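User
New here, explain this?
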Amino acid sequence: MKSRTEYRWLLPSVLLGEGEGERPARRSTRDWIVDTALFLSACGLAIASAPDIAGKPRAYVVAEQVLGALACAAVWLRRRWPVTLALATALLGSVFTLIGGAGVVALFTVAVHRPFKIAGSVAAFFLLTAIPYVHLWPDPDVGVWGMFLLIVALTMMIFAWGIVVRARRQLVISLRARASSAADEARQLERERIAREMHDVLAHRISILSLHAGALEYSPGAPPEQIQRAASAIRTSAHQALQDLREVIGVLRQTPEDARPERPQPTLADLPALVEESRQAGMDVALDLVEPAPSVPELSAPAPPEALGRNAYRIVQEALTNARKHAPGAPVTVRVTGARGAGLTVEVANPVPAAAHRRQTVSEIPGAGTGLIGLAERAKLAGGRLDHHLADEGAFVLRAWLPWS
């Protein structure tokens, strides 16, 4: 805990914007080059503005030379105490000419490294200290006011230059921060996409595994051929689930440099195979896939884009998984219609079991979970929409519309 004396010494530093937490890091090579250039500039300006010492007291001449050399050497401290250095050089510069070079560098440093409210106050102090200087050492050619206006113009030019440099640095920092934020957001979106694909695929595979395993459990006396088919289906589904999981984990681990192209993704043409796989698992699924009509009779019907077909496939896949989970044994109807320009409509309906129908007093959708949320996000990202409701006849209907431009 700081004593009252320590706080008294700390107060000026806080007011000047030079607190304890602003100690600069070790100078880089670029910092050494810039500091050396500014030190030589301060020395050059001091030599160029050296006054005529004829008729001046010897003590004044010695003091000016000593203070001028110390001010140039103090330029190396501009990163640690820029405001203090600027105020000191401005105050001494009201009497001594050789301080001007270090004062120029100090004012520029404050304009670059301090906010406008501090830098503007320091610039105003420089203008105030110029008043006694022009009266002590007037120029016979331009007069007192002419010299004062010249100092004001030079001070404002240096101050404006520092403000421009500061604004450019802040712009670069802001652009870098935006780029970093955009990169993080892109990585997050990619992981969400992978997680969505992982859920859609693995939920489908695992539900088929559960269905076949349940059939074996409740039919211990089934014929050997049926048991063999169920075991083969379990082995195939488990193998495919592991392969999908391995690929997703591989995508998460790899870097962009060693990224490999993904395996071909399912499209609308793979829907019959998906339905057949569900039928083999014991589901009663009816597929109504309406081919889009060609706009010109002589031409063939246009095929949906791969991204559109993949989204439709995933929606049907998740809908079948939900049907197996919440309405086992119920017949499922899948209908896919659409045309280019009108969009693609996917509708999956299945009767709701009586028990689930009675439990739906709290929620209108029986068994709604993260799968439906993921489907809604998928449809929204594709520019479409997805809704699900319980029809009057007691059937659960999931309907999605996807744009087809």
Notes: The CA atoms of residues 195 and 248 lie 8 Å apart.
